[in-house]
Amino acid sequence: MTKASSTIKPQEAAHFGALAADWWDPKGSSAMLHRLNPVRLAYIRDAIDLHFHSDSSLLKPLSGKTALDVGCGAGLLCEPLARLGASVTGLDAAAENIAVARAHSGPQGLDIDYRNEAIEDFGGKDFDLVTSLEVLEHVEDPQGFVDGLAASMADDGLMIISTPNRTALSNLLLVELAERTGQVPRGTHHHDQFLTPDELEKLLNNAGLAVIDTTGLSYSPAKGFVLSDNLSLNYLMTIVRTS
Fold it and tell me: pTM of this prediction?
């Protein structure tokens, strides 16, 4: 089941909801996300330390802070954020994902507030950290989605977004090759829905936000996914409110 919303595409929510059962299997349908996660987490941790002036040696730099992950799936990012000390809320359009996320976090002793809600219907606001990773390319109304993210972030908060770039390389690797070889389920990506960094920055600016860093996520056959200056495949953005 999914909830109707102006930004959620029901077919996208249904697609990912159908994959919920093996979301936590590192060799299952979400294997690529499992490979991406350590690299994304390293980027997020560096952004947290810089923004909140925390010591990189701290085990829980988000202690006393709140975090919101939008499009949380089964909790691949929510759980690490909770371990970093944050009080975490996770939103997802697919009820199946939320059920799996709750079932997985409970035995870990993690108290995460998972909700089957769209960002524009969510009443929460003033989160210290707002994240949305590999989600924007699946929404119906990108500007409305970004506006919802902005409305949930505290004035002095931090936002992290990652999404594929719309290039020939991303079409080749993320759509044609990855789906044909079974690395990701067919129908996961639609190249025409990808946003370039310039397009995303415009949406963010329209929402009163400013991009302070853009870093690429590249793929190396030897090293796997790595952070780089090359934005042609996928990229992460660090975002704050316009001062």
Answer: 0.88
